[in-house]
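User: I'll paste a sequence; please echo it back and then give the predicted structure.

Assistant: Echoing your sequence first, then the prediction.
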Amino acid sequence: ADPGPGDGKMVDIRGTYAGKQVFLTGTTGFVGKVVIEKLLRDCPEVATVFVVIRPKKGVLPQERAEKEIASSPIFARLRQEIDDFDGMFTRKVIAVAGDINKDDMGLSRSDLARVCANVHIVIHCAANVDFNERLDGAMTTNCRGPLRMLSLAQRCPKLLAYVHVSTAYVNCNRPSGSRVQEELPKCSADAEALLLELEGLKDASGLHARTQELLAKDGYPNTYTFTKAMGEKLLFKYHGDVPVCVVRPSIVGSSWRDPEPGWVDTVSAGGAMYLSGGLGLMQVCPGDPNLVGDQIPVDLVANTILAAACIAAVKGKGFFRLFHSGSSCTNPIRWSQTADSVCSYWGRHPSAKQVMKAKFKMVPNPLYYRLLHLSQVSVPALALSVWAKVSRREAVQKKSQALAKMLARTQILADTFYHFVNNEWFYDTANVLDLESQLSPAEQDIFRMSPDQVNWVHYMEDFQYGLQRHVLRDEVLPSMHLVELNSRVRATRMFPLGSLFSDLAFALSHNPSPQHVPPSSSAHIAQAVLASKSVIQAAQNVPNGMVRAGEMLAELSSNLSLPTVRFMGWLMCKINRRLFRSVMVDESSLEVLRNLDPSEPVVLLPTHKSYLDFLLVSWVLFAFDLRVPHIAAGHDFLNMALIATLFRRSGAFFIPRKIFKDPLWTAVLSEYTSELVKQNQWIEFFIEGSRSRSGRMLHPKKGLLGMVVDSWAAGNAKDVHLVPINITYDQAPESDSHIAELTGRAKTKETTAAMLRAGPRKLRRSFGSVEILASAPISLAKETAACLQLSPEAGRAAALTPAVRNKVLSHLVSAVTARFLARTAVPPAALIAAALLAARPRTPPPASGSVTMSLVELTEKVRVLRHLVVATGGHLVDGGMLARDVDNGLACLTSTLDLAGRGADASVTLPLDRPGSAMALYYALSPLLPLLARQGEVALAILAANPTPPHSAPLSKVREMLLKVRQVLCTEMVYTASDDLDKDLDATLFVMRKDGVLSVSSGVDAQVTLSAANKDSKDEKGSKGAERFAFLVDVFQPLVEGHWGTAVQLPLVLGKRDTEAHTLPALLLRNLGRMVDAGVVRFPESGNSVTVSAALRCLERAGALRTSAPSPSPSSSSPSAGAAAPASAGQGGATVSVEAPEILEAHVAFLQSLRPAGATPVTLQHLARVLAAAPAPSL
């Protein structure tokens, strides 16, 4: 064989296949399909791929190829990327009838001539992979088959390479623990003599005896590995001038990356064991969990096959090389890891097809194995069998018989794999690594062959997902690779009976090193702050200024204490277990934080929907032995004496809400922040400024972020890393109070007594799951340089000037927002709320009665919405099985919805006339809105361009309306709206066109036309597209209705006199409630405080309103400062008046076009009568 590494020539895979014709066998098999998909997607210039299909009476080979190969889900990605996939497949993939067990591969004369005349590369993937196949059948396929293929290759004048796919286990006859080189198998049998012998051996018993004799002599466990070894030796002997590469995969598993993580469509090898364990059939397996089980993702195998052909083409005549495609030498995985993954995944995602609870335990001791198998499998099966005979019930008898058959198959599976799970071999991959090194950097990433970057924990989760999704056909979402922290805490052990004290063990065992609680001295920081120039200057304008500055600093400062941190860690274990079903964490993102330069400060920026947010972040950091941060907390906590002390000693520092009104406070906070940056501390604050009451992210503020930028620009740190963190709750613990505040109720003041009253009530409820996802860190130095197009040092110097500083801050805010939106999580309750709210009658007035939906129908709607969430870049919180997600979502909405019936008769009712029900559901729906906002704004723009069905409108008119719609939605939420409106519109129209929502004609007079919702039509995609458009309008119309209801009453409310800004929102909200009760406003949820404030901001930005504020506008250096305060900000003494009545009137008219069908315009006289006659609103 060729000596191996050291070729030196660069290999160009895509260039090699460009314009070439490939002959491929085994195309209906697992590996073969992946090879075809990879060729078509990443070698798009390949001319033709001939695929061998077994002939079937009455069906043409091409028809079978299109039905059995092209229709496979493996091509879903290509179908998304290529408009005419079917046409491309028909042009490039040519099926020929053939059989590898016949001479000339069973090809007809014409096909044989065509193949031989045109083929450049031959890839032989077909094989008999039955481990227990009769020896004569296995020899025919695995020995004669490669020779027949070699004979065909020798007749191809254009031939460049022949790749034969074998198995790494041709060397499984070597001692356990051996390191196996890429060399021919050590097998004493003569393959040619054996083939002749088997032709004359017709007696089955004689054949069996001879088989056992041959296997025992060479140490092979089965006929598959034995005959594959024979096939390799024959190829080497007779290959002659044909350039041959033999690729030897180990245990082939699901895909790692391509075409998607976890793709698998067959139950074989390791997948058969994992699926049996997941279904509860193989609870215990005879094997050693501490041994290495060499496994390799199928996409890495396919890449190696394609690359091997290229090196053979480069080397030319007579070349012969072996390639191990395995992981044992580069990134080994032990059987114990696979067993843990099986139990973990299937425990969290139990299939409806599960027979018993998922368990998968490997036991090396034969006696112990028999005992466990007897107690966990045999006895339960026997009990079911006895009950079936005693009860004589047909259903029980069928279940017992089916279980017996499945257990028998499982036992055969355990016996088949016994040799491979009780021995280990280390397969050298020097040739593969050398081949990969000869690729260009771009092709090294596209055609990765080495598994060195595979995270086995994540990969095994994806493998289980693939088995469940593609083999069992369960409705399950892709794994997010998250760690459940509550269960990890329960697994903590320190001392005997540790399971009884796992929380205490957790608190005591985590990172006692000084780095965990930074060695920052409060006294040292205080001294530095009080000695700073800015504090001294600000103090000169205040009586007893320095004394006052010291008092402020004492109120402000944190005082980290490791014992307190440990106590809070223990307490949070207790609280989280009571409040949440699970706490899901992205461990890989935390590992990125661990690897950051410790000499550079880190700023953590969590989203903010609950007071628990900063406690959860600190708890997670503590759990993963990361540094506990200094946390910016509200000054209100100082009213809670004991709580304030605990928080302060856990890292909290306290900031007054209106600090910008006091220059001394601003100076003290700025210098305090600067000192933390200078000492390379980890800092945490909420960039939104305050908790979101709407369930959606608030527009970021720049105050504290600006102080961090100032400190970095002043040279106090080499770089600063900004880390956005998404915290998403199935149901926020404060959701009830948030909904109450949306309806206009005053916020409850935080006190220790109030917390003690609410605490027990909260701890008796379950709020579902909470998910904590850290995004990739943002380098302040790199982002500034990119923003200003300067070097990092020049960017730092430039950031000291106010104009440049503001530009940098805006750029940073955009970068942080983009990271937040890229990891959007949606609770299952949001999908249920969306489905029910969209099912309301579309004709006003008013909202009354109820919406009832069967659980089957609701589940189907949730299924569609789950796919929509994933397609738009989001994911579900703790998402998994469809039925489980529906159950979890309903559990969060039990106080709002009425559930009735069981099984097929179960139904869910939304009582529209129950006060607050629609508001509660729209609050639950809110996390979904930013994800759909781009499609939602286009749907509303089409509606505004032509309110009459079928809403066909000129593209130019849609673009004009989109600008107005965006001005409304951008005041309501943060979403991925760029400054380039045309680019956004084109991208969104492309997605909606692919999904069948609409069509866009070409040319100057382009028209946007919606798909027709015709139930009798066979255009299923068009019908679903029409449903999508109606759904998008339904979920965003309540916001538009709220803006209309606010704007339409302003001429009456403001009249001819100005109105105080701090009283205006409450007055408008009360009137909205009256309009809802009177049926003027259709949606009860439209009358909420957030939408009223957003509507006022929108009108002020448009120039329709003017706010006169006698007090100076907030300083941009304050923690909550952003843009100038809107009319709804509530400044004392400020007044609001109508600045431009014509703009207000035009805005109302525009909003009227977006209202539900049948909602007629309202005159001011009619509205005045409604508001005068209506009682206090029911909201």
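The two ends are 83 Å apart (CA to CA). The chain has a mean pLDDT of 85.
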